[in-house]
Amino acid sequence: MDAKFVRVGTTLIVRMVGELDHHAAEKLRTKIDAKLKREGVRDLLFDFQGVQFMDSSGLGMVLGRYKLVSAKGGKVLACGLNQRIKRIFEMAGLQKRITICRSEEDALSGA
Amino acid sequence: MENYMKLEFPSKSQNEAFARIVVAAFAAQADPTLDEISDVKTAVSEAVTNAVIHGYENKSGTIVVSATLQGKRLEVTVIDYGVGIEDLEQARMPLYTSKPELERSGMGFTIMENFMDEIDVISEPGKGTTVKMVKIFGKKEPTET
């Protein structure tokens, strides 16, 4: 899995490409947590557009970041989920904690 | 048509992708839909990840994945010789995890149950765990959103 980080205002965007399983999630969370520690980052946006596969390890990684970010008053958003990933999110009730948007634009504009 | 395969590998996390791709490639000869293949890939990934994290607790061990195909019926078995599961009923409960510190979501078995047609778990503490799953291809998808 590849990930690109972009910051827009106080939001850290994580653009993921590839398959988000246990192996990938372990590596990605270390990278994200290092970026979250930087000054001025409040919210976190996961862009799933390039993710074709995710299992429950992806859920765990997203939930773990939610705990970190929400403890500091920020919110976590996710966009670009395919039908399958959305279904897995909903199985775990993640949509109650994570704001799911269609695109990065929608997520950043609060739509 | 009847066919089978067997795969053995060490409990390294990079083998999770390897195992699910091999099973998906094996199952492809039954002409499943893309959705059905994704169901199988996800379920295999969950079972193998459980073996790596829980069965062997991230230490080294051997995982055996085998599959048989009879017509449209795929049976996948994932075996580890690790610590085993003390309380199977609890382990299979949605959102339950024995390893919250590792950021496990507790959704592994729930996903296997949802994406496969049958799942059977046999486990003995100290001996290991066997997860047997069946997927019947070409069944009409239940209408749900």
List keywords for this structure.
heterodimer, A: 111 residues, alpha/beta, Transcription Regulator spoIIAA, five-stranded mixed β-sheet, 5 strands, globular, B: 145 residues, alpha+beta
Helices and strands in order, then pairings?
The complex is a heterodimer of chains A (111) and B (145).
Chain A (H helix, E strand, L loop, with lengths): L1 E7 L2 E10 L1 H15 L6 E12 L1 H16 L4 E4 L3 H9 L7 E3 L2 H6 L2
Parallel strand pairs in A: 2-3, 3-4, 4-5
Antiparallel strand pairs in A: 1-2
Chain B lengths: L1 E9 L4 H13 L6 H22 L6 E9 L2 E8 L7 H4 L16 H8 L2 E7 L3 E9 L9
Antiparallel strand pairs in B: 1-2, 2-3, 3-5, 4-5
Helix pairs in contact in B: 1-2, 2-4
Description:
The complex is a heterodimer of chains A (111) and B (145). With 111 residues, chain A is α/β, with parallel strands linked by helices. In chain A, 41% of the residues lie in helices and 32% in strands. In chain A, strands 1-2-3-4-5 form a 5-stranded mixed β-sheet. The mean pLDDT of chain A is 95. By secondary structure, chain B is an alpha+beta fold. In chain B, 32% of the residues lie in helices and 29% in strands. Chain B is built from 4 helices and 5 strands, in the order βααββααββ. Chain B has helices spanning 15-27, 34-55, 88-91, 108-115; strands spanning 2-10, 62-70, 73-80, 118-124, 128-136. In chain B, β2 and β3 (73-80) form a beta hairpin. Chain B is globular. The A-B interface holds A 19, 21-23, 25-26, 29, 53, 55-57, 59-61, 63-64, 84, 88, 91-92 and B 13-14, 16-17, 35, 38, 41-42, 45-46, 49, 52-53, 94-95, 102-108, 110-111, 114.
